[in-house]
Design a protein that fits this description.
Keywords: Hydrolase
Radius of gyration: 22 Å
Pfam families: Amidohydro_1
Helix content: 25-40%
CATH topology of the largest domain: TIM Barrel
GO molecular function: hydrolase activity, acting on carbon-nitrogen (but not peptide) bonds
Shape: globular
Oligomer: single chain
Number of helices: 19
CATH architecture of the largest domain: Alpha-Beta Barrel
Family: Belongs to the metallo-dependent hydrolases superfamily. ATZ/TRZ family.
Structural class: alpha/beta
Number of domains: 2
Bound molecules: zinc ion
Largest sheet: 9 strands, mixed
Strand content: 15-25%
Protein name: Guanine deaminase
Length: about 500
């Protein structure tokens, strides 16, 4: 790519590192930023000039936690706790062909790019286990759009109904018999498939890379988690898990392990600098200190945590402990969009109900830093993306300053976080290539994707109708049991773990 220069001229740069904004030109060589200079700076002869006048330039937002399969499930649920979402998972996320997976990944990526996001950590679900063909289709979906992704197959070797103490036993027969017969794939099958996925990887690792997603600690055996740990070490892979997401999980962990979920994972050797915990709503202070010591990251998903009633993560305490925190949307099955501007605003706003002194709330610069450099570190790409600086990949978003969101332009950082709804996104560059220009995709046909999505959803929903009826019939048992497990939660000031009647 040497000699392939582009220069962005006339834009207003949002410099998150310096907490400032100023006019600047940006020189790009191939996929990499080479120089940031004053307006009119010299550029190599023949460089392509991109006019950025009237645009605010910020680093591409990085989504630290999503689920590509959820793109086809947006709007399916409403008053669902996390456990009701998991109860619905067989019909909202099951029955996909490999082509459906590619369509879902493409749709997820398309929404993120339209909303200013250039890279994501995607825990994609394949049932009963991940496959090289399926993961290749998902990777191709991201590549079609031109977006970066870390793809972690979402896996479990304990079924959801066996993961919550007492839940299976209270289901009325014959539901219990049918649901009990639905076993999860054994751990050695998951691990063998993941090994095949990694060894047959065909994507450029800068663009789409593999990771591991043993989904929820309560749904994974010790043998499975040890296997994931070893596979990750052997191949340098990241691991992402949903950790301490709901109060039900925190209480269930106390009963099953007599320790916290994070402490159990640490005892198994999983928590290190390649480990990302999604949510972490119910982490204790000791969990946070241990995870910071190990160099792990947390993906904070305030929208999903609110929608599912999971609670409000104590992110200021995480940051004070030294933990790296990124921001995510979670999947559209739970939140129900892929809007990182909204996720940033929610992260800022929910911080105001956790701690009282306003100086401990998250301000806009800190939220911007978490949604860019913080999330990039969570993806394991902290030295390549998340900043507009020489040597970093040219992943940038151009916001139209003629948008009503910037009239008047009083304070760019405050307005990106507190005013922006993604409607001002005019162009998105990823790796030096404009993948969105004038709000139109340059690499694929969105109208064709809409038609593909409609056809896939109609077929999947018809095929899953019987499964849907089966799980909807037991939803109220799941709901009542889980409420009974932790009746006084959620309250982030009083984690149920500290006073659960059965915790020892
Ligand atoms: Zn999730």
């Amino acid at each position: 790519m040497t000699g392939d220069f582009t220069v962005l001229r006339g834009g207003l740069l949002l410099d998150i590192g310096r907490q400032d904004s100023y006019p600047a030109d940006i020189l790009i060589e191939g996929d990499t930023i080479r120089e940031i200079g004053a307006p009119g700076m010299a550029a190599p002869e023949g460089a392509t000039v991109e006019d950025a006048s009237g645009r605010l330039i910020l680093p591409g937002l990085v989504n630290a936690h999503t689920h590509g399969h959820g793109a086809l499930a947006k709007g399916l649920g409403d008053r669902w706790s996390l456990e009701l979402l998991l109860n619905a998972a067989p019909w909202t996320g099951g029955g996909f062909t490999h082509e459906d997976k590619r369509i879902a990944a493409r749709l997820n990526a398309a929404e993120m790019v339209l909303k200013g996001c250039t890279a994501a950590y995607d825990m994609f679900f394949e049932f009963p286990t991940a496959t090289p063909e399926g993961i290749a289709a998902i990777g191709a979906g991201y590549r079609d759009v031109g977006m970066r992704a870390v793809i972690a197959p979402m896996m479990a070797d304990i079924p959801f109904f066996r993961s919550i103490p007492g839940l299976m036993d209270l289901l009325p027969a014959p539901h219990r018999d049918r649901i009990a017969a639905m076993e999860a794939a054994p751990f050695d099958t998951h691990l063998a498939q993941c090994r095949r996925i990694v060894e047959s990887w065909a994507f450029d690792l800068d663009a789409v890379r593999p990771a591991l997603g043993p989904t929820i600690p309560l749904m994974c055996t010790d043998d499975f988690l040890r296997g994931c740990r070893d596979l990750a070490r052997d191949h340098g892979l990241g691991i992402q898990m949903h950790l301490a997401e709901s109060p039900v999980q925190a209480v269930s962990a106390a009963r099953r392990y007599e320790t916290t979920l994070a402490a159990r994972l640490d005892a198994l050797g999983l928590i290190d600098a390649r480990f990302t915990a999604a949510h972490g709503v119910w982490l204790t202070d000791a969990d946070m200190a241990m995870m910071a010591e190990r160099g792990a990251s947390v993906a904070h998903n305030p929208g999903s945590n609110l929608r599912l009633g999971s609670g409000i993560a104590r992110v200021r305490a995480m940051r004070d402990a030294g933990l790296c925190v990124g921001i995510g949307t979670d999947g559209s099955g739970s939140s129900d969009n892929q809007n990182m501007f909204e996720a940033m605003r929610m992260a800022a706003f929910v911080s105001r109900v956790v701690t009282k002194p306003p100086e401990t709330w998250f301000g806009t610069w800190e939220v911007l830093e978490m949604a860019t450099a913080g999330s990039a570190q969570a993806l394991g790409m902290g030295d390549a993306i998340g900043r507009i600086a020489p040597g970093y990949k040219a992943d940038m978003v151009l916001l139209d300053l003629a948008s009503v969101n910037y009239v008047p332009l009083n304070n760019p950082a405050n307005q990106v976080v507190n005013c922006e709804d993604s409607s001002a996104v005019s162009a998105v560059m990823i790796g030096g290539r404009m993948v969105l220009r004038d709000r139109r995709f340059t690499g694929f046909d969105f109208d064709k994707l809409r038609a593909d999505v409609a056809a896939a959803v109609a077929r999947i929903q018809a095929a899953n109708a019987g499964t849907r009826a089966e799980f909807e019939a037991v939803a109220r048992f799941v709901s009542h049991h889980c409420v009974g497990l932790c009746p006084d939660a959620p309250n982030p000031q009083n984690p149920p773990l500290r006073h659960a009647p059965h915790a020892r």
